[in-house]
Structure formats: structure tokens, C-alpha cells
Design a protein that fits this description.
With 52 residues, the protein is mainly α. It has two helices and no strands. α1 packs across α2.
Length: 52
């Protein structure tokens, strides 16, 4: 198995940094997952110049 480290990309790292600064105390695992995926999508769109 190849060595892999999380975060594996700049987008993952930025999304994780954002997540670390959120109040997750009342969130379910599903909500946390969706927040992380949404953060990655927003970062990716910003990087590609697709501001929404």
C-alpha cells in the first residue's frame, strides 16, 4: 500500500482548516460530511473562477 497522508491536496487542506474553525458540537456525522464536501466544492469553484 502506498503512503498517503490526509490532507492529500490543497483543497482538502483548506476545507479541513475551515472545518476546524466551525462549531460542530451539535452536528451529526452526516452534516459534518456535507459541510466538508460543500467547503471543498466552494474552494474548487473559487479556484476555477466559477464564483457562485
Amino acid at each position: 500500500m502506498a503512503d498517503s497522508f490526509f490532507p492529500s491536496s490543497m483543497i482538502d487542506a483548506l476545507a479541513m482548516l475551515w472545518m476546524q474553525n466551525q462549531d460542530l458540537s451539535s452536528k451529526t456525522p452526516e452534516e459534518i460530511y456535507r459541510m466538508f464536501v460543500d467547503a471543498k466544492e466552494k474552494i474548487r469553484n473559487e479556484r476555477l473562477g466559477r464564483n457562485q
